């Protein structure tokens, strides 16, 4: 019980650190999407339940810092956590290229869900032609982390 509480506290601290760090870092005026990294890592290592819990904490913190309680980041990170946890079930062997491609695609998926939610509920955030290079830049920055974060079985 004590180890589980310590683990959850560590996860919350890491998510808060990535949210704060994300606010300070940019790459050629592209605001990075670093909160998907702990979601991806925990979902691969611990499975659907803990991955989705981490995703919901990350999305809630991101939405709280952007001015709302429940927003598009909560939905996008939650869906991303569920999808990432099920990636190893699709592939029999885990290869670095699978990690790279899955990190790239999950970052784009996360950005698209946020873009669609903002477009539906609060008007179009930016023109789609401006959104595509931003999403690709974020995904290209996050993709190498897919090489580092590997799925490992408990065997």
What does this structure look like?
This protein has 155 residues and is mainly alpha-helical. It has a single domain, classed as Arp2/3 complex 21 kDa subunit ARPC3, CATH 1.10.1760. Helix content is 75%, strand content 3%. The protein has seven helices and two strands; from the N terminus they run H-E-E-H-H-H-H-H-H. The chain has helices at residues 2-24, 36-46, 48-65, 72-90, 96-122, 128-142, 145-148, and strands spanning 26-27, 30-31. It has a two-stranded antiparallel sheet. The radius of gyration is 15 Å and the shape is globular. The protein starts with a helix and ends in a 7-residue tail after the last helix.
Write a brief caption for the model.
This protein has 155 residues and is mainly alpha-helical. Helix content is 75%, strand content 3%.
Poorly predicted ranges (pLDDT <50, ≥5 residues)?
none
Class from helix and strand fractions: mainly alpha
Give me the oligomer status.
single chain
Please outline the major beta sheet.
2 strands, antiparallel
Count of beta strands:
2
What pattern of helices and strands is seen along the backbone?
HEEHHHHHH
Look up the CATH topology.
Arp2/3 complex 21 kDa subunit ARPC3
Query: What value does the Rg take, in angstroms?
Result: 15 Å
Number of domains: 1
Question: What is the CA-CA span between the terminal residues?
Answer: 23 Å
